[in-house]
Amino acid sequence: MKIAGLQKTTLLDYPGRVACTIFLGGCNFRCPFCQNAEILDGSGGEDIPEAELYAFLEKRRGILDGACISGGEPLLSDVTPLLRRLKELGYAVKIDTNGCFPEKLKALYAEGLIDFAAMDIKNSPQKYAKTAGAAVDMKKIGESAAFLMESGIGYEFRTTVVRELHAGEDFVRIGQWLRGAKAYFLQAFRDGETVLRPGLTPPSEGEMQAFKRIVQPFIPAVKIRGEI
After folding, report:
1. CB distance 216 to 180 below 8 Å
2. Which among 155, 166, 176, 73 is positioned nearest to 128, based on CA atoms?
3. Distance of CA 22 to the CA centre of its chain
4. Whole-angstrom Cα distance, residue 131 to residue 122?
5. What string of H, E and C letters represents the secondary structure of the chain?
6. Which of 29, 52, 85, 162 lies in disulfide reach of 132, CB 3.0 to 4.6 Å?
7. What is the pLDDT of residues 50-105, one digit of tens each?
8. Are 115 and 95 in contact (CB under 8 A)?
9. Residue 191 Cα distances to 43, 67, 160, 175, 197, angstroms
10. Model confidence over 4-55: pLDDT tens digits?
11. CB of 9 closer than 8 Å to CB of 21
12. Which residues are within 8 A (CB) of 28 and not within 5 positions of it... i.e. 6 or more apart?
């Protein structure tokens, strides 16, 4: 497990909590819009010693009340010891995942090690592999999504919307797939120096609102990230 980065305070990543975000290196996807491209192969980013991380977490007890485990794809690593330590320190734990490892997700939840999960929904099932930049086992993606919707865990689904990759028909299919989800966010792509593939563009505000309206009959709880 490589600790590739640490955001010491965030009010946005964990709903309702003051948290830190721990970035783990490595990912099995190569989404062209990824903003953490430098850590995808496990070699880039920082290399924070675990002892240093745990000292920080110990010091911030009572100031922070949550920890987000992100990546990359954190479930590529054995995160169990890290999550056990976080729980021992009294932190609520949120994990970000692409949904490829439902068995690991279920095991962590069964042990009481995660309190909230955010699962990225890359696109409609028909365009998943293209959007993920890699081969995808949609049965596992579907299994993870179904588990979150049925387990009682706090969760959200989220899609980063890219003009070159998403169209209205994709959101019809996503809505049909995740019908009744209690939290689904659309978030506009943001370009930057660390994005994996240059030249992508965000949708307009009008396009985002149109996609939201398409999803709404299936998922009434759909929101645009940042929208009040």
Report:
1. no
2. 166
3. 12
4. 6
5. CCEEEEEEEECCCCCCCCEEEEEECCCCCCCCCCCCHHHCCCCCCCCCCHHHHHHHHHHCECCECEEEEECCCHHHCCCHHHHHHHHHCCCEEEEEECCCCHHHHHHHHHCCCCCEEEEECCCCHHHHHHHHCCCCCHHHHHHHHHHHHHHCCEEEEEEEECCCCCCHHHHHHHHHHCCCCCCEEEEECCCCCCCCCCCCCCCCHHHHHHHHHHHCCCCCCEEECCCC
6. 29
7. 999 999 999 999 999 999 999 999 999 999 999 999 999 999 999 999 999 999 99
8. no
9. 22, 26, 12, 26, 9
10. 999 999 988 999 999 999 999 999 999 999 988 888 888 888 999 999 999 9
11. no
12. 73, 76, 98, 100, 134
Look at the block and give the residue holding tokens 């299936």: 218
Per-residue confidence (pLDDT) for residue 228, from 0 to 100 = 55
Give me the pLDDT at residue 179, please. 98
Pairing relationship of beta strands 116-120 and 184-188 according to DSSP bridges: unpaired
Task: Please provide residue 33's backbone torsions phi and psi, each rounded to the nearest 5 degrees.
Answer: -95, 5
Q: In the numeric block, which tokens belong to residue 87?
A: 């729980």
Strand pairing of 222-224 and 92-97?
unpaired
The mean pLDDT of 116-123, rounded to a whole number, is 98
Length of the chain: 228
In angstroms, the CA 85 to CA 177 distance is 36
pLDDT at position 194 is 80
Reported as a single tens digit per residue, the pLDDT across 144-198 is: 999 999 999 999 999 999 999 999 999 999 999 999 999 999 999 999 888 888 8
Q: Write down the pLDDT at residue 196.
A: 85
